[in-house]
Design goal:
The protein is 38% helix and 15% strand. The chain is an alpha/beta fold and 265 residues long. A seven-stranded parallel beta sheet has the order 3-2-1-4-5-6-9, sandwiched between helices. Strands 7-8 form a two-stranded parallel ribbon. Helix 3 packs parallel to helix 4. The longest helix is centred in the middle third of the chain and has 23 residues. It starts with a strand and ends with a strand.
Length: 265
């Protein structure tokens, strides 16, 4: 028996990926931060091939060790989608940047320690903002491709958007650097998926209420606006439907031709 691990299983994108994994016969181990989230996701999917495990703190250096030790050589695929995207966070350097980097490295170190010989493919959910800052998005002459990196760094962080952008850049670079530095100890394929603005429906209609994910909240603010009131802040960006994005993750996970690729969607 082999398992596919997906971190951040309660996430907007992750739920769509899980649907595809289950429909293709994968036995999925998803991580969430609380038992409440585990219970909610389990009820939504109602599928015996989905197991939920609790990883409460992405900032812990060995956050994923117990999970990878538990399933060890039964793990074949890994998708790391978990990353802080929360407009209520206030410590920009720690809550966004440090958490994103530490969480990514804790997954990779756990693979190296417990599943180096069984994991065949890893997909990391990065972002288009790892390739460019928002100023670049608004430049009609700019070109963003697989060679592009966001020019901003820690010292350029001034708000939540810039903190998120830098966190995705530094976490993705940490993933590529880890793979290169440990190429003799780990053999898995690595791909990153770099989506632009992610739109589309929730994976389950019954969850489209209350506090929505951060991207959907932009549309919610527009729809709930009143004449003369404030709209969501303007962001110039291409967009991708979350269902297409989930398919891209699955293709990168299962097809060797994506090895070593940064895939901008």
């Amino acid at each position: 028996m082999s398992y596919t691990v997906i971190t951040g299983a309660n996430g907007f994108i992750a739920q769509h990926i899980i649907k595809i994994l289950l429909s293709n016969g994968h036995k999925v181990v998803g991580t969430v931060r609380t038992q409440e989230k585990a219970d909610t996701i389990a009820k939504l999917f109602d599928n015996e091939n989905l197991i939920l495990e609790i990883v409460p703190d992405l900032n812990a250096v060995e956050a994923f060790d117990s999970l990878f030790e538990k399933y060890n050589t039964q793990i074949k695929y890994v998708l790391h989608t978990a990353s802080p995207v929360d407009s209520t966070l206030t410590d920009l350097q720690n809550d966004f940047i440090n958490t994103a980097i530490t969480g990514t490295l804790s997954v990779f170190n756990a693979i190296k320690t417990y599943a180096a010989n069984s994991v065949e493919s890893v997909v990391y959910t990065s972002s288009s903002v790892a390739g460019a800052n928002f100023k670049t998005f608004l430049d009609p002459t700019a070109v963003i491709n697989e060679e592009s990196w966001n020019p901003d760094d820690r010292e350029d962080v001034v708000d939540i958007l810039s903190a998120y952008s830098v966190s995705k850049k530094l976490a993705e670079k940490a993933a590529w650097n880890f793979k290169e530095e440990n190429k003799d100890a780990i053999k898995f394929r690595l791909s990153t998926i770099n989506p632009f603005f992610v739109t589309g429906p929730q994976a389950f209609d019954e969850t489209a209420k209350g506090k929505l994910n951060e991207t959907a909240s932009y549309f919610e603010q527009i729809l709930a606006s009143k004449p003369g009131g404030d709209l969501a802040p303007f962001i110039g960006s291409p967009a991708v439907d979350v269902r297409d994005l989930a398919k891209a993750h699955y293709l990168a996970l299962t097809e060797p031709r994506f090895d070593g690729q940064r895939v901008f969607i």
